[in-house]
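(Fold this chain)
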Amino acid sequence: MVDEMKTKWFRPSPEFSFLIGSFLGDGWKVKIKNRKSGYDYRIRFAVTDRDFAQSFSEAAKLVLNKKEVKIHTRLRKGRKPIYSITVSSKVLFEFFNLPLTEILKVALIYPIHFLRGFFDAEGYVAIDKKKNRKRIRIGVSNSNLELLEVIREVLNNLGIENRLETDTDREGYKKVWKVVISKKESLLKFKKIVNFTIKRKRKKLEKLRPFSGGRI
């Protein structure tokens, strides 16, 4: 099925892998009935970082061969604005209906771009100050353990050590796991190889400075 999709469709590309990673974190798909053609097949994406929305828009524009993919802004009193994107594409809708293993076969042709999209969507940089020391860690959370195991494998293949933890359980919510990177050498490798497109997350990583071994 994947080979068929690749030949009749868009070719694998860094932009497509980034789009897949971003979608698996912050996207969803909807099928809406209409009066003319039967159904509209839409891919939707919404975030609070304008630069991330812009990166997703540029990737979608290249993947779908569109002149423009608009970003819509929704202002919220006392809260960050929401930047949302909607694209109509039956083929892309059908692609995201494939089993996760099939989607990842395409995404992992460009693993670094896939990771960047997913960490932009679901990742964070935490800085803890203890006894005049800063402890920095990168993490990514999700309720899909199968997906996180793949994320771990890709990170390990890049020489980025990580560990899997169970996130805080809250009654009535899905169980969530997180992949955590805390060793200094691995943090620096992530910064150099993967990093984020989101400026506020990149800025936190700029606090990392090379030194020998251990955790920060």
About this structure: Residues 4-8, 212-216 have pLDDT under 50 and may be disordered. The beta strands are 27-33, 39-47, 72-76, 79-88, 123-130, 133-142, 163-166, 177-181. The CA atoms of residues 73 and 214 lie 43 Å apart.
